[in-house]
Structure formats: structure tokens, C-alpha cells
TrEMBL record:
Location relative to the cell: Chromosome; Nucleus
Domain Condensin complex subunit 1 N-terminal: 76-264
Biased amino acid composition, Low complexity: 140-159
Compositional bias ranges of the Polar residues kind: 558-567
Protein name listed in UniProt: Condensin complex subunit 1
Keyword Cell division: yes
Gene Ontology MF annotations: histone binding
Cellular component per GO, a single term: condensed chromosome, centromeric region
Length: 1379
């Protein structure tokens, strides 16, 4: 190949397609000579004369080394690359010099001289790049992310990919190698790539059209010289190397811009997007560099057109992901280029592939951002040119927002979530779009009820961002309290009506009103006054002395302006609009009077017009703000429900929203904050990672953070004393109007914070100061202080141990007697003296503190209980006082005996006549108390008073109903607390016995001869002793408490039975409630007493009209069941009746008690599970949620739902308890979701088929068929059992609904059938079903015809009978009988 022209680049490239078969003349055998020696022979020639590459021997030697690159050492390849790059550089520099000094001459010979070396070097470099990854010792090549498919020899290095990535690869890996390793492994391909790309970039600076005169030849060379770039880009590892990536962009841009490489590059880019997902964003960046730095946007337009014309199916995965990333990245870099081709790309909004729809959502968001941030709104080229320059951006923005909001209704939850994410980012734009923000708010509120948790989370996040970035904060600081905004709107509306009703507004008002409707831009509305002063106000300069305008006008651009350029654009239009607006005013006024107006009158008219415009803008401003506030307030209920979601990310987002809403003073935010408090019981306290890669904190820790930021974190610029006062005030306010559940959750949170040391001692001191203050404080404030102190004492007992005297002086002193709720919580705080150590199951250790009975605490408690009082709050106080006595007292029964005796004397002591005369007044007080609560005393008081007057006449004694209620309440509570105390005594005896036994064992162990024998005896004695202790305590409870001759409680058992059993005598509701509650507690004491009198309790449950009594009985029955399960189990049907109670509280308590009893195995389910199933569709959400929780827990029990399923179906389908079909279907759909085992499904199929045989009602047929259709039919056995049961339901198939259900079952069976099995059996079954349906329909038609003929015959017989004039009465009776 002495002639350079003999080298044909196109032919050589085609031959190189298969390197193993590539043949050339002077191929060297590397087995006889080393590659290093061959290379050393030709290097001097190449170094001195780069054009010597055209020498056939040199060229073929280089080709020989490259052909066997897999056996060539790395250092040799590195030397080879260096020589090739130096040679090509030398040729290129010569070419560039020739071009600079280009003169007329022998151009053809020069061209040939330049052309051959360039083509040979390009050929060798392309070959080198493809062969470099085969080189031994190439750590970076082993780490390459992808290799060409046609390189069969590349497969051996594939396993090294992970190794290279693990060690870091490339430069980082080289940096950590030892010098010896570097010397041994000098070859690193990734480090050679930048130098290679730099030389190719330099090569592309030549003017190729002067060397290659024909386009095909030039295209071959450019394709060859750029092929290394494309090959390198196919490796994800190389594209992560920033220098390599930037050089690739530059190289390809030069080829496209100066060497007509655009078409080839377009094809390569599209292929890269199709097959290499990692190239999606780099290709977008390449087009961005080409458009911005090389001023060549045409290629980007062409690629976008190609992408816009592609169609992606729902099954495509890799292609849509890659193209979607490309579109998103390109819209970020060149949004204007995408905007020009948007009409073509919008077709992907309807694509079957959801990744493409997601990409288009992000693209639209990027375009909105670009248009909103653009300072020149006329840059858009996709809008009509005949519109004014200020209109296209606004119109485009409106259209883009509309498109974006329409995606909130997309079928894919991923698209809906991405839409919300994009909208959330758009909230941060400096320009606010009030109309669009309201639409976004409306969409977000609607999506709070989406079925996908990710969508709901996105909607909550969007609402929170809308609140934080809202544009209605310039005038009043940004707070969004609904009441304040309504008041502002009302005032400005009244002010506007007053001004518009004034003299001289007339046509000016109409003209302004029209402009207000037509023009949305607030600045243009503001300019309608036609006065330069108005322009200044509209621009917010604030030079006007009018306070209102100075305050209002800075918000004007954000009231209705939709682009940030609004303050700039109106300047040209102002003059035009002034002229237009002045003309109608002239036409509406008398021309003669216009000439006579003075300058003062003209200024006054201008000011009036300006005032109207200001007021209208303020009214619009407030109206938009009110709309936003009302929409957010309307969503609070749903947001509160989301706090109970099972999705962690959703809960955290809802918590963050309520924190934001509370800071912006939304009225309903406090409800969410209180609801959030219950999350303190969440067990999830570990951080995790969400789907989008963000770290999610634990729910509990996030809750504590929220409450700290809202209530406990110090505020800047506030004195320490003020900080303490603020924190204490916040803690106290948390207790205001709190329910028992909220106080329990707050207690847990305070305990947790106290354990972590987050409550400062100064705050505790301030709480004590509030509690013990001698000033007249609001009752809730003092109560809140002691509530919080009691909560803190759970974690640290010293909080109350150091202030016992204060507790006795305040809570159980005069203040406590005046405020019984304060005394109640004081008693609760005193119980903290005992500590909060929880009993460990099976442990005999007792850490409780017991105090001698002569302590002042017990005297104060006794005084509080015995103090005369007629308030309903006394019962709560007395309960806690007795709890405190039993929690702290060494011998609580002694003190309680005294209290009961004293209350008995007071209740039954003879009353003087004066007292009897004033008794009605006392009962009136009780009535007032009753009016505030359920303990109404009106009927009872009147009856007791009347009885008293009658009995006084007969000189008989009468007691007071309220005092008797107090006595019975204390008796019942002492009884139940004494049972608990007996358990503690039993545990203490066992502990003492255990210590003694342990001591005896130790002593026995010291005597080796008798150790074994004594040990066995001691174990036996210890076991017997524990049994004796248990039997002794049980005997006390069973026989002595209620039946012992010396028992005080035994006196009151018959009294309670008498009062509860005589409602006609004892009509006082407070007395009946207290007696029933105490009677219920007595039933828990003794099985003998319970067995004798439990039917009375069920009778009261059935007949009582007081929902509070019924509710208390239901709860008491749960306690009785714990103590004596057999007695309640026998009468469980009565308990289930509470599920049908009309009162919500009774129904809820019944459901909770039954849930507890059933799940813990205390009562057996005997076919009543259908009543529980009815609650699944209860209209009250709390009842339905509790029922769902019950069935979810029941499903964890072995076969519990499966065993009771037939009874549930029968209960709901037929009989007195049946529900409508729709309710039946929704209920069974939920219950059948727990039938997961295939064996269970098979048995249910068989049972349901047999049930068809016994049913005659079409409603039953439909219900059974529906239940069958709910089964999965995953196995052949299920289908087989269905086919075997054909004889039982074939005569029911004429019912259309039944046949439809079996059709659904067939479709389900076909979908679950394995592909390799024929459909013969199912097809035959389908044919049989069709046949029996047709036959059944014919039978039904025949039966109807027979019935019709019978009816006609009866009718004719009746007519014949009527014609007979003389008919006997017997005949008439017979006719009537047949009729």
C-alpha cells in the first residue's frame, strides 16, 4: 500500500466490523515477536514524520498490535496511544497552518497528502477505543459500565465491573495504589480518554470541506473520528467522569456545527435514548450546549419533533423512562426550545405510558417557571402575533396551568403525585398567581380523599406550601384567621357601598366597573383614574399622604397581577388608556358644566375615583383571601383523619401541615394539633427512607419536635422570665377543654419530655406558683397547673414529694372545696407519691410507697369526701380521693370504713322540720347541677320531696336522694378498690413467703447431707403455701366482703338490690345512676352475689331509658366477664343487644367491650358475629372503624372468621336481622378479604353450594351467588367443587343476577388457570350453565302462562257465578273461598 490513495476508509471500516476476520497484507505474528519490540521499531519514524503512517509496514504493524490487543500489555498500549495522538496532532497542526496561509497552488496534491494520514489516524483511533477495553491490566476498562454488543471478546472482562466500581475505578483507584502497583499496572484507560478527546476536538477544527470535496467521503471521515466519542458515551462509568463528559459535548458540538454531522448525531441521540438509559440527561445537556454555546438549536428542535412523534405502549418500560428523563432535563436547560415544540409534545399527555405523562407534567412546570421568571414576556413564539405583547405570556401561563391541573385527574397515581410535586415547586415562584393558586388549592383539597397514599401526601404538602407562600400577607402580616378576614371584608364592603352611594360617582362608577371586569391586571385597573398620582400609588411608592392608600397599594400587584412584569409593562399603555378612559367621562358630563369646573373640583373628582378603585381592589383582595382560607378550613376535617393513616409519610406530612396552620392561626388548626397528640402512642420511632429517597423521622419523635416548636422552644428577643411564663402558660392551655383521651396522651408526652430533661426546673416552679397563687385566678388555669404537675410527677416523683403541704393547703383546702375538679386532680397528683413503676407480670416485687394512716393527707382526703356538697363534680373528686387512700394508705380499709359510716349517718339521720322545709331548695340546687349534665334530678327530687312531706305528716324519717347517692357511690367504689387491695395483699404475702423459702433453701444448701431431701420438701411446702394464700384471699373476697357477719359492705348489698330493682319508688336519676354503678361493682366482688343478682343488671340494661346507665352497665358487664366469665357467657345475647342501641355512646361501648371479651377468649361466639358485622356499615365512622379493627384482629386467630362465616351469612341474609342487599354485599366483601387459605375457600364453595338446595327465596340465591363470586378460585379443586354442586343451583340460574355471578366466577377461574392446561372443562361448564339458564327461563315462562290461565279461569268462574240470580249462600261462600 505504497500509494496512500489505495487506503479506502469506507472499505476498511466495513472490514473491521468483525476484527477476528479482518485481513491485511503485512500482518505481524505476535507469538514470534513481542508487541513492545514491534512498536519500538516504528516509533522513531512516526515521531519524526507523522505522515509516515501511510507507510504500509508501519500502518500494518499498528494494525497487528490492535488486532491482538487482548494479549498486549497495558504499558505498550499506552505508548501506542501516545504515539497515535502525537502523530495526529502533528498532521492536524500542519493542516491548520496550511489553511491559515492558504494560497493558490497545487490543491489536489495537497489535499491527497492531508487526507490519507487523517483517515488512517482516525481509523486507528476508532479501532484503539474499541480494543482498549480488552487490554490486560486495565482496571478502568474492567470497570466499564457497558461494552459493544459486537465485541465477543469483551465477555471475559464483564465480571470485573463490580470490582472496578467497588474500588472506585479510574483516578480515585490509581490514587490509592502503591508505587509498585502503579508500576506494574501503568495502564488506566479512563485516564487516557480526556487526552484522546482533546486531540479529536483539535482535529475537528480543520475545514473538512476543503480536504474531502464530496459529502459522502467527508461524512465517512467525520463518522469515523466521532465514533470513539459515541463508544465512550455508552459506558455509564465514563460518563460520570466530568472532564470526559464535557469534552464529549464539545467534540460532538464541533462536528455538528462545522462538519454537517447533524443528521448522524440526531440518529445516534435517538438510539442512545432508546438503548442507554444513562444517556438521557447527557444527551439533553449536549443539545443544551449546542444551542447555547454553539448557537445551533436546530438539532434540538429536530430531536423534539422525533420524540413528539413517537408512540409508547403501556408495556414499554425502558424507552419511556429514558425519553422522559431527556425531556425533563432538556426543558430545564432550554425551556424556550421546548416551548416552540410544545404542540407536538402535548400528545404524550395522552400516552399509554405513565412515565411519559409524568415527564410532560414536569416539562409544563418548567415552562411555567420560565415564563414567570422571564423579564421579557414577548419572547414567546408560539402565540399569535396579532395579540398585544403583554398578553401572550399571561395567556400561555393560564393555558399551561390548566393543562397541569387537569393531570390531577390522571388514571395513574404516579402522575397525580408528580403533578402535585410540580405544583408545590411552583408555589415558590416570586410572582404569585391568585386565580391559579385558588384552583390549585381546590384541586389539592379534592385530592385529599384520593385512594393512593402518595397522592394524599402530595396534596397535604401542596396545601402546606400554598399556606406558607400565600400572597395575602402584605397588608396585615400574613395571618389567616377566618374571623378577622371576614370582618375586614365586611368593613371594606360597607365602606365601598357608602362611597359609591355618594354624589358625583355616576357614569364614572360604571366605567370603572366595566374595566374591573374586563381587565385582570391590578395595575391596569389602578391606572383607570387617569391621574399621575394614581400611577405613583399603584407602583407602591407610598408618597401619598393618605394612610389607606399607603397601606394598601403595595399589595396591588399581588392582588390580581399574574406576571412579575406587571409593574413595568403598563407604562406605554397608560397614556392610551387615559385617553380612552377620559372620552366616556366627557360624553357623560355636560360640556358646559365641564368648562366651568374649577381646579379644586377636578382634583376632588380624581380623588373620589381613586378612592373607589382602591376600595374595589381591597374588596377583591379580601375576597380572594377569604376564598383561600375557607377552602383550607373546609379541608381540616379530612386532614385530621389523615393523622390516623397507616402510611408513615402521609402522617408526617399531615403533622407538618397542622404545625404550619397553627402558626398562621387557622381556626381549625387547634383541633388537628390536639388530634395529633394521640400519635404519642405510635410505636414507630425509627427513621426510615421514603420512596423518593428522603429520610423520614419516627412519628413519635416528629410529634415531640412539633410540640416543642409550637409550645416549648424559646422565642428570640424575649427575656428569660417571659420565656418561662410563656411556656408554663402554653402547657396549662393544653389542658383546656381536653377530653380524657387527650389528657391521657398529653400525660404520656409530658412524661416522655420530662424523662428526656426537656422541662426546665423554672417552668415547674412557675406551675407551682400558678397553682398556689392567692390571687383570684380562672378555675381552668389553676386546674391546668396541677394537671401538668401530676403528669410531670409520673417521670420524676420529686415534683410532688417536695410540695405535699402545698397540695393539701390548696387542692384539699378551701380552694379545693370550692372547686371540686381542682380537688380531684390534686388527689390524682397525690397518687404520684407512690411512683409510676409498672408491675411486671409474674413478679412479686412491690416498689409502692405506703404511708401511715395518721398522716395529714388522709385527714384532708376524708374531709374532702365528707364535706357537704351537692355538685355532680363531687363524684369524680370522691373517686380520686378513694383511689389515693388505697394507693398510699397502709390500712386503707380502716379509713374507708369510717368514711362510709359517717356518710351513712348523714344520709339516714333524722332531719329536723326546718331542714325538711328547706329541703326543696336544696333539691333545686341539685336540679341546676343536673341541667348541666346527665345527672338530672328533676323528677326524683320532686318525688322525694313529696314523699318527705307526706312522711313528715306521718312522723316518719326520710333521707336526701343526693346524699344517699353519695353514700352508695362511695360504697361501690370502696368495694372494687378493696378487691385490688386484696390482690396486693396476696402478692405481698407470697413475696414474704418466697423470701422465707429462699432463706430456708440457703440454709439447707449449707447442710450437704440433707440438701436434696429438704429441697424437695421446701418446694412442696412453698407450692402448698402459695395455694393456701390464694385460697384464703379468694375466700375473703367470696364470703366475707359481702356475706361476712362483721362486713360493713354486706349491709349495703341488699340495699343496692332493692333500689335498683324498684325504679318506680326511686325515680331520682342521680340516685339510680349511682346505685346501678355500685351494684355493678358489687357483682365483680363475689361469684355468689353475681350469680344471684346478675339478671337484674341485664333487666336494667334492657329497660332503662337513661343512656348513661346503659353505657355504664355495658362497661360493667365487661368487668364482670373478667371476674366470672361463665355467668356473662350464658347471657351474652343480652350484651349483643347493645349493638342495636339508639345511643351512639352505648353502641360504641358495647362494641369495644365485645371486642375485648371475644379477642381475649372470655366469651364464646355463638352465632352473634353477624351483629358485629352489621357495624361494618354503620353510618357513624367511629363505629365502622372499630368494627373493622375487630375483624382485622379476629382474622389473626386460627380459623375464627372461617368457622363463623356461615352464621354471619345467614344472619345478614335472612330472618329478622337481615340487611338490604347493598349493605350485605359491602359487608361480605370486607369479611371475605380475610379468607386467604385455598383449603378454606374450597370448603366454603362446597358449603355455599349445598345452601342453594335449602333456599327458596331469590334474595338468598343472589346473596349466596355473590359470596361465591368473592372467592379467588385459584385452584382446580375449587372449580371442581363448584361444578360438582351444579345440581343444587341449576334451577336458580334463570335469575339474571345469579347467572351473572357465575359468569364472573368463570372469568376469574380462566384468569387463574395455568396456561398449559386446556379450557375444555370450563367451556363445558359454561355451556351447561347457559343450557340450564335457558331451560329455567322457559320453565319460568311456562309457569307464568299456567298461572295466567288459572287466573283467567277463576275470573270466568266468578263471572258465571255472578250471572246466577238465585245462588245459595253456600255457593257464595265457596266462591269467596276460591277468590
Amino acid at each position: 500500500m505504497s500509494d496512500p490513495a489505495a487506503f479506502n476508509l469506507q472499505d476498511e471500516l466495513q472490514s473491521l466490523a468483525d476484527p477476528a476476520q479482518y485481513q491485511f497484507d503485512h500482518e505481524q505474528d505476535l507469538s514470534q515477536s513481542t508487541p513492545r519490540a514491534l512498536l519500538q521499531d516504528i516509533l522513531p519514524s512516526l515521531a519524526s514524520h507523522p505522515e509516515s503512517i501511510t507507510d504500509p509496514v508501519i500502518f500494518d504493524t499498528l494494525r497487528s498490535i490492535l488486532k491482538h490487543a487482548d494479549v498486549v500489555p497495558g504499558p505498550v498500549m499506552s505508548t501506542l496511544l501516545d504515539s497515535l495522538l502525537e502523530g495526529l496532532t502533528g498532521v492536524v497542526e500542519r493542516v491548520l497552518r496550511d489553511e491559515e496561509g492558504y494560497l493558490a497552488g497545487d490543491r489536489e496534491s495537497e489535499t491527497e497528502d492531508k487526507r490519507a494520514p487523517l483517515e488512517m489516524y482516525a481509523f486507528l483511533l476508532q479501532w484503539f477505543v474499541s480494543a482498549a477495553e480488552k487490554v490486560k491490566g486495565s482496571s478502568s476498562s474492567a470497570a466499564a459500565g457497558s461494552l459493544p454488543a459486537d465485541d465477543a471478546d469483551a465477555s471475559p472482562v464483564a465480571p470485573k465491573v463490580r470490582k472496578g466500581r467497588k474500588t472506585g475505578g479510574g483516578v480515585a483507584a490509581n490514587a490509592t495504589r502503591t508505587p509498585a502497583a502503579k508500576k506494574k499496572e501503568a495502564w488506566s484507560w479512563i485516564d487516557q480518554i480526556p487526552a484522546l478527546l482533546t486531540v479529536i476536538c483539535k482535529t475537528l477544527r480543520i475545514k473538512s470541506h476543503r480536504i474531502w470535496t464530496t459529502s459522502p467521503e467527508r461524512d465517512v471521515f467525520i463518522t469515523c473520528i466521532t465514533r470513539p466519542a459515541y463508544h465512550i458515551s455508552e459506558s455509564e462509568l465514563y460518563m460520570k467522569h466530568p472532564p470526559t463528559k464535557l469534552l464529549l459535548y464539545k467534540l460532538l458540538s464541533l462536528a455538528i456545527k462545522h462538519h454537517s454531522h447533524a443528521l448522524h448525531a440526531q440518529i445516534s441521540i435517538l438510539q442512545s435514548l432508546q438503548y442507554y438509559e444513562h444517556l438521557a440527561e447527557p444527551m439533553a445537556e449536549l443539545l443544551g450546549v449546542l444551542a447555547k454555546e454553539f448557537d445551533y438549536a436546530q438539532l434540538g428542535d429536530e430531536v423534539l419533533r422525533e420524540v413528539g412523534g413517537r408512540v409508547f405502549g403501556a408495556a414499554d418500560s425502558r424507552g419511556p423512562r429514558s425519553f422522559s428523563k431527556f425531556l425533563v432535563r432538556f426543558s430545564e436547560i432550554c425551556p424556550r426550545g421546548v416551548l416552540k415544540q410544545l404542540s407536538l409534545l402535548l400528545a404524550h399527555l395522552d400516552s399509554e405510558s405513565y412515565p411519559m405523562r409524568m415527564a410532560m407534567v414536569e416539562v409544563i412546570g418548567n415552562l411555567i417557571r420560565e415564563l414567570a421568571l422571564s423579564s421579557d414576556p414577548s419572547l414567546s413564539t408560539s402565540t399569535p402575533t396579532d395579540l398585544p405583547q403583554s398578553q401572550p405570556p399571561k395567556k400561555q401561563l393560564t393555558q399551561l396551568y390548566t393543562l397541569l391541573l387537569s393531570r390531577t385527574l390522571d388514571l395513574s397515581s404516579y402522575v397525580r403525585t408528580r403533578t402535585l410535586t410540580v405544583l408545590t415547586k411552583l408555589c415558590d415562584l416570586p410572582t404569585k398567581f391568585p386565580a391559579q393558586r385558588l384552583a390549585m388549592t381546590r384541586a389539592a383539597v379534592e385530592m385529599l380523599e384520593d385512594k393512593a397514599a402518595g397522592v394524599r401526601k402530595g396534596a397535604v404538602g401542596l396545601l402546606g406550601r400554598l399556606v406558607v407562600t400565600h400572597p395575602w400577607g402584605l397588608m396585615h402580616g400574613g395571618l389567616l384567621a377566618l374571623g378577622e378576614w371576614e370582618e375586614r371584608y365586611r368593613k371594606v364592603r360597607e365602606e365601598l357601598e357608602g362611597v359609591e352611594g355618594g354624589v358625583g360617582v355616576g357614569g364614572e362608577e360604571e366605567e370603572v366597573g366595566e374595566e374591573h371586569v374586563k381587565v385582570e391586571d391590578g395595575m391596569e385597573i389602578d391606572d383607570e383614574g387617569g391621574d399621575t398620582e394614581i400611577e405613583d400609588d399603584g407602583e407602591g411608592d407610598g408618597d401619598d399622604t393618605d394612610d389607606d392608600s399607603d397601606e394598601e397599594m403595595p399589595s396591588d400587584p399581588n392582588i390580581s397581577s399574574e406576571t412579575s412584569s406587571a409593574p413595568v409593562t403598563p407604562k406605554k399603555n397608560k397614556k392610551k388608556k387615559k385617553k380612552k378612559s377620559l372620552k366616556p367621562r366627557k360624553s357623560s358630563l355636560n360640556l358646559e358644566s365641564l368648562k366651568t369646573l374649577t381646579n379644586e373640583q377636578a382634583a376632588l373628582a380624581a380623588l373620589e375615583s381613586n378612592q373607589i378603585l382602591h376600595l374595589r381592589l381591597r374588596k377583591k383582595y379580601y375576597a380572594e383571601g377569604l376564598n383561600f382560607i375557607r377552602m383550607v378550613e373546609g379541608a381540616m376535617e379530612i386532614l385530621t383523619q389523615l393523622l390516623g393513616s397507616t402510611n408513615k409519610a402521609e402522617v408526617l406530612e399531615a403533622m407538618e401541615f397542622f404545625r404550619i396552620a397553627w402558626e398562621y392561626q387557622f381556626d381549625s388548626a387547634e383541633l388537628g394539633i390536639k388530634k395529633m397528640l394521640h400519635l404519642i402512642w405510635s410505636k414507630d420511632n425509627n427513621s426510615s427512607t421514603s420512596e423518593d429517597g428522603k429520610e423520614l423521622k419516627g412519628v413519635r419523635s416528629r410529634l415531640l419536635e412539633c410540640y416543642r416548636s409550637l409550645y416549648f422552644d424559646p422565642l428570640p428577643d424575649m427575656e428569660p422570665k417571659q420565656q418561662v411564663n410563656r411556656i408554663a402558660k402554653n402547657m396549662i392551655e393544653l389542658t383546656y377543654d381536653a377530653t380524657l383521651a387527650e389528657l391521657t396522651s398529653l400525660e404520656e408526652m409530658m412524661r416522655s419530655m420530662m424523662d428526656d430533661g426537656q422541662i426546665h426546673q423554672d417552668v415547674i416552679a412557675k406551675l407551682w406558683q400558678v397553682y398556689s397563687s392567692d390571687k383570684q385566678l380562672p378555675k381552668p388555669q389553676r386546674r391546668g397547673a396541677i394537671i401538668i404537675l401530676g403528669m410531670l410527677a409520673l417521670a420524676r416523683r420529686s415534683v410532688v414529694t417536695e410540695r405535699v403541704d402545698t397540695l393539701l393547703r390548696v387542692g384539699l383546702g378551701p380552694l379545693g372545696k370550692a372547686d371540686l375538679t381542682l380537688a380531684r386532680y390534686t388527689g390524682l397528683a397525690l397518687q404520684r407519691l407512690n411512683g409510676s413503676a409498672k408491675k411486671i407480670k409474674g413478679s412479686l416485687l412491690d416498689k409502692t410507697l405506703r404511708i401511715e394512716m395518721d398522716n395529714p393527707i388522709f385527714r384532708k382526703l376524708q374531709d374532702a369526701v365528707e364535706h357537704p356538697c351537692r355538685s355532680k363534680d363531687w363524684f369524680g373528686m370522691a373517686e380520686q380521693a378513694i383511689n389515693t387512700i388505697y394507693a398510699l394508705g397502709e390500712h386503707p380499709d380502716e379509713l374507708c370504713n369510717t368514711i362510709i359510716k359517717n356518710l351513712t349517718r348523714r344520709a339516714f339521720m333524722p332531719r329536723p322540720k326546718a331542714a325538711a322545709a328547706t329541703d326543696p331548695d336544696a333539691m333545686d340546687e341539685d336540679q341546676l347541677v343536673g341541667d348541666k349534665s346527665v345527672d338530672k334530678t328533676e323528677d326524683g327530687d320532686v318525688t322525694m320531696t313529696q314523699d318527705g312531706s307526706v312522711q313528715d305528716e306521718k312522723e316518719k324519717d326520710v333521707g336526701d336522694a343526693f346524699e344517699l347517692s353519695q353514700l352508695l357511690f362511695v360504697v361501690g367504689h370502696v368495694a372494687i378498690k378493696h378487691i385490688v387491695f386484696l390482690e396486693l395483699v396476696e402478692r405481698e404475702w407470697k413475696r414474704q413467703k418466697d423470701e422465707k423459702t429462699a432463706g430456708d433453701k440457703q440454709a439447707a444448701a449449707n447442710s450437704p447431707n440433707r440438701a436434696a431431701k429438704d429441697g424437695e420438701e421446701l418446694d412442696q411446702v412453698a407450692g402448698n403455701a402459695e395455694d393456701e394464700i390464694g385460697d384464703r384471699i379468694a375466700g375473703v373476697r367470696e364470703t366475707e366482703l359481702l356475706y361476712g357477719p362483721e362486713s360493713l359492705l354486706a349491709i349495703y348489698g341488699p340495699m343496692l338490690v332493692h333500689i335498683c330493682g324498684s325504679p318506680h319508688k326511686f325515680k331520682n336519676r342521680t340516685l339510680r345512676a349511682a346505685a346501678t354503678l355500685s351494684f355493678s361493682k358489687f357483682l365483680c366482688v363475689s361469684s355468689q352475689f353475681c350469680d344471684q343478682h346478675h339478671r337484674l343488671l341485664f333487666k336494667i340494661l334492657e329497660t332503662s331509658k337513661d343512656p348513661n346507665i346503659r353505657s355504664n352497665i355495658v362497661i360493667a358487664l365487661g368487668d364482670v366477664a373478667v371476674s366470672f366469665s361463665n355467668i356473662v357467657d350464658e347471657n351474652s345475647n343480652e350484651l349483643y343487644k347493645g349493638l342495636s342501641d339508639g345511643d351512639l355512646v352505648v353502641k360504641k361501648n358495647t362494641l369495644m367491650v365485645l371486642t375485648h371479651l371475644i379477642l381475649n377468649g372470655m366469651i364464646k361466639v355463638k352465632g352473634q358475629l353477624g351483629e358485629m358485622a352489621k357495624c361494618l356499615e354503620d353510618p357513624e365512622p367511629r363505629i365502622a372503624d372499630l368494627a373493622k379493627l375487630f375483624f382485622t384482629e379476629l382474622s389473626t386467630k386460627e380459623n375464627a372468621i372461617y368457622n363463623n362465616l356461615p352464621d354471619v351469612i345467614s344472619h345478614l341474609s335472612i330472618g329478622d336481622h337481615a340487611v338490604d342487599e347493598e349493605t350485605f354485599q359491602s359487608t361480605m366483601r370486607y369479611i371475605f378479604s380475610f379468607i386467604a387459605k385455598e383449603k378454606q375457600a374450597e370448603n366454603i364453595v362446597e358449603k355455599l353450594c349445598h345452601r342453594f338446595r335449602l333456599s327458596e327465596d331469590p334474595r338468598q340465591w343472589r346473596d349466596i351467588a355473590f359470596c361465591l363470586s368473592l372467592l379467588p378460585f385459584k385452584s382446580e379443586r375449587s372449580v371442581k367443587k363448584l361444578i360438582e354442586g351444579l345440581q343444587f343451583y341449576r334451577d336458580k340460574l334463570h335469575e339474571e343476577t345469579v347467572f351473572t355471578r357465575f359468569t364472573e366466577i368463570l372469568a376469574k377461574a380462566r384468569s387463574n388457570k395455568s396456561a398449559n392446561k386446556p379450557d375444555t372443562e370450563l367451556n363445558e361448564f359454561e355451556a351447561i350453565l347457559e343450557e340450564h339458564k335457558t331451560q329455567g327461563a322457559e320453565d319460568q315462562a311456562l309457569e307464568k302462562r299456567v298461572e295466567g290461565k288459572k287466573a283467567a279461569a277463576k275470573k270466568r268462574a266468578t263471572k258465571r257465578t255472578a250471572r246466577k240470580k238465585q245462588a245459595t249462600p253456600v255457593d257464595d261462600e265457596d266462591d269467596d273461598m276460591y277468590l
